Amino acid sequence: MAASPAKELRIAIVGGGVCGLMCAIALAKNGITAQLYEAAAKFGEIGAGIGINPNAVRILRDIGVLNDVLAKTGSNRPNRTGWMQFRSGMQDSELVYDYTTLPGQESIGIHRAAFLDALVQHIDLKSCHFNKRCIRVSESPLSTNGNSELTIHFADSTSAEADVVLGADGIKSAVRPFVTGASTAEHVKFSNTICYRGLVPTEQAKSAGMRLDFSDRPMCFLGQDKHVIAFSIKGGHIINVVAFVSDRTVPMGEAQLPPGQPAVVPVPREQLMKEYEGWGSDVLALLSCIDKPDKWNIHVVYPPLQSYVKGRVALFGDAAHAMLPHLGAGSGQGLEDAHLLAKLLAHPQTSGENIETILQVYDEIRRPRTQSVWEGSMRAGEIYEGYGISGSSREGLRKDLEDLPEFVWIRELNQDMQDATARLQQLGVFTNED
Ligand SMILES: Cc1cc2nc3c(=O)[nH]c(=O)nc-3n(C[C@H](O)[C@H](O)[C@H](O)COP(=O)(O)OP(=O)(O)OC[C@H]3O[C@@H](n4cnc5c(N)ncnc54)[C@H](O)[C@@H]3O)c2cc1C
């Protein structure tokens, strides 16, 4: 395509979840307006909490949205000082491992809708297009002057043209088939893990007999093939609860849900209580307060994609690497992707002429990182549920838990951009001038 500075490129983002929004905001802060196409009628998130871990907090700060996110938590600083306290899920709730903080590591527990609200304040709604469900992306053939155009086709029979398409449309991404050449079914698999989610008023949990305090940091209750995560949101008034159940009798990717079964279904509380029969009184007290649990059939991107990029189309967030949630790292990885994409697109040496190589380098840097976090999340679930390599004794658990999340968190903010710049200089795409 013709040489044009990046600021003249028409950049489209498909999907306005946290990752798509953050990419659009980061670009806008660098003077680049991307057009954002969202399937829903407005920005929205599910009624649940989310943990934003240290690597993601650093990105929020760098992009300039952290204070607004914190304001939604009613605080002016990240509200957690450590990662998780791991306890037995059985009667005594015995402490197994306490992941206290390391210097500079801070994280946030927040309601998802509040998180999204904080981000939306930073976006110009004139560049956001709602009720635009992408059904596919196509590329017009190259013309004699070397130009080609990407077209995003929507379910309402309209379409939009772009020079660069960034797919952040989540696990069922309609952009992904353009990149992979494969159908959604080939890369989206049931993870053999389900979870029950609910929000519980802290006072209600106490009245039901819950003795533990979640205000300082999340807790993970460990058990065989099951575990429960609980953390405070809304200034400590609400506890976000997620109770997981896994089936390891079949390898990942082999179990199929009955056709047409939705990913999320409301279930009676009795079903949840039955799953956790025999567990300790703290866990049971917490679960008994979930009024109407939602059962999630967790899907993941599997097998991993060979590339996140084809030509001038790139995937990021769950569209590229939806993972099990056991490290609370999924959106954090998507934010790392968004951060790098925005920095690369805003670089003064990026142009229409070199954009394809630049996106290839994005893929080279982000794919190994996100896929290792994908594997780490799987490993974390195995440890929590009795299948860690050191076994399920207290000592074995402690050994396996000790270093688990560090590789996710301890990441220099600009590490990816430094690596990408070095690679682009090596390829002769960037010079040392900027
Ligand atoms: C139980 C559970 C707990 C989790 N806990 C955490 C946690 O604590 N911390 C963490 O970091 N991560 C967590 N995650 C992972 C996290 O939720 C995801 O990684 C994150 O939401 C992905 O964001 P995204 O923007 O890529 O995708 P999504 O949030 O799925 O957003 C996709 C957006 O695209 C839109 N869209 C979809 N299809 C189309 C289309 N065809 N055309 C246009 N728009 C479209 C959707 O409406 C949506 O707005 C958890 C996941 C689960 C299942």
TrEMBL record:
Q: Which residue numbers delimit the FAD-binding domain? A: 10-179, 305-375
Does the record carry Oxidoreductase as a key word? Answer: yes
One Gene Ontology biological process: secondary metabolite biosynthetic process
Any idea which UniProt keywords this protein has?
FAD, Flavoprotein, Oxidoreductase
Source taxon at top rank: Eukaryota
List the InterPro entries.
FAD-bd (IPR002938), FAD/NAD-bd_sf (IPR036188), FAD_monoxygenase (IPR051104)
Q: What would you give as a GO molecular function for this chain, any one? A: FAD binding
Q: What is this protein called?
A: FAD-binding domain-containing protein
